[in-house]
Amino acid sequence: MSGTQERPLRADAARNRARLLDVATEVFTTRGVGVPTEEIARAAGVGVGTLFRHFPTKEALLEAVMVRRLEAIAARTADLAAASEPAEAFFGCFRLVIEQSAGKNEFTQALAAAGVDAHAALQESSQAIRAQLADLLARAQQVGAVRAELGLPELVALLVGTGAMMELLGADPAARERIFEVVFDGLRPH
Amino acid sequence: MSGTQERPLRADAARNRARLLDVATEVFTTRGVGVPTEEIARAAGVGVGTLFRHFPTKEALLEAVMVRRLEAIAARTADLAAASEPAEAFFGCFRLVIEQSAGKNEFTQALAAAGVDAHAALQESSQAIRAQLADLLARAQQVGAVRAELGLPELVALLVGTGAMMELLGADPAARERIFEVVFDGLRPH
DNA sequence: AACGATACGGACTGGCCACTCCGGTTGTCC
DNA sequence: GGACAACCGGAGTGGCCAGTCCGTATCGTT
Fold first, then answer.
1. Residues of A with CB below 8 A from B183's CB?
2. Chain B residue with minimal CA distance to A34?
């Protein structure tokens, strides 16, 4: 389906594209999506023209950044899930997803909105994560580590919400840990 | 301090101001803060000039809306807190705050940011709520209804985060209830 | 080394939106 | 009921920003 079948980019073009993605990730994450495109271009050492050639729209750039993050999370989640028994895998992945979306409120919102109004590319990579999460959840429930009545939508909500909590608490590790304890205890049966 | 000491408004001016506030609350809540000011003016049946005379800035309008909501919540919280014993009061107010901020992600973010960079008026009314919450929390902890190690920052984070979860789940009451169960169970000791 | 093809830069355009300004209207007080 | 203030409406202004266009530079190939 997703044919990445284009003729290979020229060396400089590939370099610029990568730099653009890196810079955009950094800037959007730390300063929000309201930052003018021109600033991202300048920070990447290219002109706006170049930016818009690689990403025809600001939205497209944002999407590319998101997809990249989602894919990174999916990969790490898969590793973690394969290497542990159900309960550990579930809670480990929960932490991982939270930590990977650090400083990125809007990213989590996108994950949330993905099932609703996001674009095709986002749909695809967020579906991948959702499938993994569903699997993780089912297995953790089977061994009785997580309340049986919870579904995937609730899990996603919990993830996004917990992410929001962490963002609020900033860099206080003790407080973050206390939140994890509350949420994890709440997730366990009875 | 906060001298509401101005000469009383003319009748029509007062009416317009109130209508503006009502409409702005509605519009900002349902469609986000990105809506053009002119649209709010039109919906309120006045010109933009009138809007900007009452609220010199879009931000000022937003602030007024926030303050109003915060005050409403503070009032209802106080009632509820006075009429129940600690545990019931705490969890009741938790629900109340969540429900009152329904459909208003950005409002909750403001509550959160209030301690950080919001304007004077917001500071004031959010301080009032925070004080109430601190009290509620302390009392619930004294009777052993809530984990002792949690502080006010964690409680605020939990509120905001849970609000985000609810927003995500939309109108599914069963799912919302399941989330409440998870969070409330997590809040209780051990 | 020379020549296409490919990619670059950044001045420019168009649209949107917060905010201003002032001629006209409406409330209020004697 | 008249006169003066207080208020209103909405066309207009300025600034910002996403996206375009084309002359110029760079890459890769023979």
1. 182-183, 186
2. B34
DSSP state of B33: T
pTM: 0.89
pLDDT digit string (tens) for chain B, length 190 residues: 444 556 799 999 999 999 999 999 999 988 888 899 999 999 999 999 999 999 999 999 999 999 999 899 999 999 999 999 999 999 999 999 998 887 666 655 555 555 556 677 788 888 999 999 999 999 999 999 999 999 999 999 999 999 989 988 888 999 999 999 999 999 999 8
Chain A interface includes B177 (CB < 8 A): no
Which nucleotides of chain C does any protein CB come within 7 A of? 6-12, 16-22, 26-28
Distance from CA of B98 to the nearest CA of A (A): 12
